[in-house]
């Protein structure tokens, strides 16, 4: 343990380093000058800016412009300004908290001990250019996270460096003052981690650089795997590790990799805001943040009214009495499975030979080119040409046909009518056109025939413009009808489903899918397959500029969706993090026990890392929640103690709400800063909010799927929206058998309970959920109020 003297020496060093940092800041401030107030904005219009590639996904080289090039357009000057600004922002963070760790290392063959201090950025002394602080992401810093006192080594670009660690020390420094200092062993001090974890939760996520654990470090610094899959228990730090990983990659590949070449997929907009502060806190720019639904909306939201995953989930949770319920569930499962993906792939193969469907080119009620003519032309092209390329040829042909048609219309009566209606500006435009045509010759409309010809051409060309655009966008392929045919054309079905086990309720599924498609609606389970079919015919729209894709809450995605990610981000490494125990959707999850991920990604390029230690909740809460899971024994709590979870059973809802109200007031007065009342559905949350919010002594908030920001205080929230976030105290509104009994609800209940950091209280109207009944009674406190009036 460190002595007073050492403490003093360390404080002197802090003083010396911060003085130097202050001097560096002064210098940088002069350089930055006018750009001081610049903020680097998160890119919101990402989906609009990206390149569209109508060829195959593998033809990466064919994409002409992409995000990478866009960023290269930044002038050198702007770039250096930005760099200086970023350096300044890092120095400003370092000055009050220059470092959090120290390692003493004696390199093999050398007698000299080197002390390495780790902070969020490197800092060099001006004169000697010594590293006074090493960036936590530097190769040597790995010793701190991975090594233990004794023999150790770290990797550098020029090979492995071996040696001996003689000291590993942790600091908490605030305002350039050492508040805590510990010497630690193998793991990064339980003491500091204890202190960090017992804090109250925040409205935004915090960086964990000072206390990254060894197994989390493996995720953060993984450079090898093309596909990295993390299966981690609730609260094991998956999201935290993912964000630190982004920071690490930005540092490691800083010459080539920019923040806008990395994209994070999150479960909802509120979660996006919750995690958006971590990278800026580390002095880094945020990666692109989005949701899969946002992507779907951009791509097919104009063609269909899209159902979002939350509406689907609400249906699954609350419409069990619907006569088509069972069929819908089977449909959701099947349409997200690899089998359905196989069917779509076969469909595409079939369409290369037969069965393509087109929409005719119509103009003013006339058929310019019929669907049948287009079909015949399509199959006249050599079958070895890919569908997407044949469609390109078709496009050129149709544009020519359209131009011939335009010529044939020049003398049509409607053209004269339109000429009569032309405005002054139109005339002017025509005149300009004439001028160009005459090229210096007489430029007046004195020749009536020429004038009419020019005006007619203009009128026809203007009127055909939308149609030309339509052709250029390959809208003449009837993708809607093609997708529908899977459900209403027995010939198509029998061709593509050979060898596939269709679900028992296929007929019913087909009926309601067809009805829905007819009504221009697309259920959530149909969105990805429809888009996949569309893109496999027209060409995948790929994002070649993206180098890293991070998928958080990966268990929410179906194998089908993952296959889609792989297609649209062909050059990216994918990091998918999730927990199969929190797979709350009815569709099959990529993280199910028999994981289909290997199938999709190929086992050689896929690495799986498991995280079993849970940091969020107290030991008591982890012990209680893990007992609800069939394989819960794998989850290990971090050693932080608290109260046993409490379960209260009521017979009257009025009494139950009174008790909840009382408990909320109690928690507020005890200083709990964030408290969630977690309900099962959005409707239930709304009801509870309406009844309870005005009785509370502080304002509360109803969280909906559209809620953008995450706040402290009392939140009333449906369980599925609470996923990924955490609260000091959690009150489960109605953990009864009535609410959570079906096997499919186990994961939802588990997810809700694992949001609690320090306190978990479950209120049940009537007998408690069997998932609680499964938990050994010594793991929780129980009270019953059965005799109420
Ligand atoms: N190494 C660490 N040091 C300090 N805090 C940590 C560490 N790892 C995790 N935590 C804390 O544990 C909590 C849970 O982390 P995080 O949200 O990243 O977990 P998760 O695995 O994504 O959880 P879930 O799957 O339940 O959403 C957070 O408060 C986080 O700050």
Automatic annotation (TrEMBL):
Keywords: ATP-binding, Helicase, Hydrolase, Nucleotide-binding. InterPro entries: DNA_helicase_UvrD/REP, HelD_bacillota, P-loop_NTPase, UvrD-like_ATP-bd, UvrD-like_helicase_C. ATP binds at residues 232-239. Residues 211-618 form the UvrD-like helicase ATP-binding domain. The keyword Hydrolase applies. This is RNA polymerase recycling motor HelD. SUPFAM superfamilies: P-loop containing nucleoside triphosphate hydrolases. The keyword Hydrolase applies. It comes from Paenibacillus polygoni. Pfam families: UvrD-helicase, UvrD_C_2.
